[in-house]
O-methyltransferase, family 2
Amino acid sequence: MAGERDGADPRQLVQLVFGSMAAQTLRAATRMRVVELIGDKERTAAEVAAEAGARPEGMIRLLRALAGLGVVEERAPGTFAVTPVGALLDSGRPGNVAALVLAMADPTMLRGWEHLDEAVRTGEPTFDTVFGTDFFGHLREHPEESVRFNAAMSQSTRATATTLPRAFDFARFRTIADIGGGDGTLLSAVLMEHPGLTGIIYDTEEGVAQAPATLERHGLTERCSTVAGDFFRSAPEGADLYLLKSIVHDWSDERAVTILSNCRAVLPPDGRVLILEHVLPEAVDPEAPGFAYLSDLNMLVNLGGRERTRADFDELCGRAGLAVVSVTPLGAPNPLSMIEVAAA
């Protein structure tokens, strides 16, 4: 084989191809609450199995696989403790990623990936072919999956919410409209950091359903309103900063231009649009994590969207009558960048 002749080690590819099995291992552990059951103590596999309603011989195999992934460690034969990274699967722990694991490893998210080659050939999402409807249409028809997906999106937004309020000069503005703002996690964080601002959360009826509870929990009901609508038809008037986090990448260029054009239509002369997305380099950095490129393929397979380069954003915004002013990374551990956009 070529790998043997040139000295390449095939174990890297073997490890990669086992990645889907690793994801399902994390999903099973999260569904069975393995990390919560172990807690801060050392527990035997038999003890965890008894509380999880599982057979001991099956549980020890799961726990040893988790140990191989660094989620737990086997302190003595058959006895396990949770590692710091594994603790992030505890749904009750601040900053946990349990909902994100459940959503991203869910069969609904992965079925379209079975036909990735077809999506690459055609440039069209395969989710629609597999399920007979588009991704968000499927969520509307399956409320339990919609709840799970929204929880995952809120969870992924929390990392941005801890960074963004002090990373951008919000003091220049009066009212922020969070387009596709969901349950208000991100906008609430900004408003709490900047008490002189007011806000608007704009999303579908399903999208904003949890927002009033978020606003009430943070004491923001007097400073922030919720508006149900369709960002393909319009954007709410009355704001001078329009915030779009992880919205543009969901859609094709044509549909993304529609969203941005609707923001441009209501943007005051001194207003701005702030886009929070991955910004891909013009060429792949071999030292950088490949997550953004997997996200790009996920957008292709499930939604028909894409991750974009700076040049892509320049072109996209230009078609919407906007111009990119600056692109600034949010900074580790957040992989997103802030793309500040003004009227062209």
About this structure: The mean pLDDT is 94. The chain is about 45% helix and 15% strand. The chain has two domains: 15-92, 159-281+300-343. The radius of gyration is 22 Å.
